Amino acid sequence: MAAEIFYDADADMALLAGKKIAILGYGSQGHAHAQNLRDSGCEVIVGTRSEGPSYDLAKSHGFEPVSLQQAAEQADIVNLLLPDEKQGSAYEEQVRDALSPGDILMCSHGFNLHFGYVAPPDGVATLLVAPKGPGHLVRSEYLAGGGVPCLVALGDESDEATMRIGLAYASAIGGGRAGIIRTTIAEETETDLFGEQAVLCGGLSALIKAGFETLVDAGYQPEMAYFECMHEVKLIVDLFYQGGLNYMRYSISNTAEYGDYTRGERIITEETRAEMKKILEEIRSGDFAREWIAENKAGAEKFHAQRQQEREHPVEHIGQHLRRLMSWIDEKEV
Fold it and tell me: Given 109, 114, 231, 313, which residue is catalytic?
């Protein structure tokens, strides 16, 4: 069954007229949503802590930030854009009681709605509008006259009137220029987590490190290993982005293409596929969500230790050195 895809022509921006939209959190997605909505003529209230970089950034962009509670009290549409691990407690403490019947509670990732850490009060509809790209791209594409594709989904008690609000919101942040795909909150949440863990972040990071380590352990220079297993990943991914696997294979040498067909399956084995299925089941059952929330309630010591350990991996050190030699790269350091 083909997905339903909507565009600007399917969205009625007039549905947002006279409505106040609260953007709770001014991080990666929040700053982009708030500015794009404002530039599209919407009335936006930014809710964030009264100190810290997010507050200062919102001020520098011309907003007058208020607390999460104040923003939710004033708004008709409330988009919860705090980090997943902080949403549940912030919602219970500052947002839930500020909502009124007829309000719409939104998110851009369904983690907390789907797994029950955020439960709307009676009379409050739930809605997801999720750009398929980071916030800086949502903003830059909007400014360039384009947009980032968005997903739109309704909560269990929401109706088609809420769906029309979702289309208008997605259009206002630029999604209607690229396409707005209808999905469900469960589908968005589970596929997003799986993609991050098994392919885009967890899978790819582990593959890069394993390739780098294999070459260095065999006596090759780490600089060569970095170029082959890290640097050139972008070149290949750009080809995927432009034309899929076929265009990548069209663009590389016949030798590389033959190696792709004959060796790739030896890396992604049946054992790997079985582990992918296990990861998906952990996501669908809620086990991963419970693990991540519990980790944060316990102070996230394991998470922070792993973060520090990964920063010390040799591929990071050699990469930092080599990127400084490549003046065309806008190097980012954390």
Answer: 109
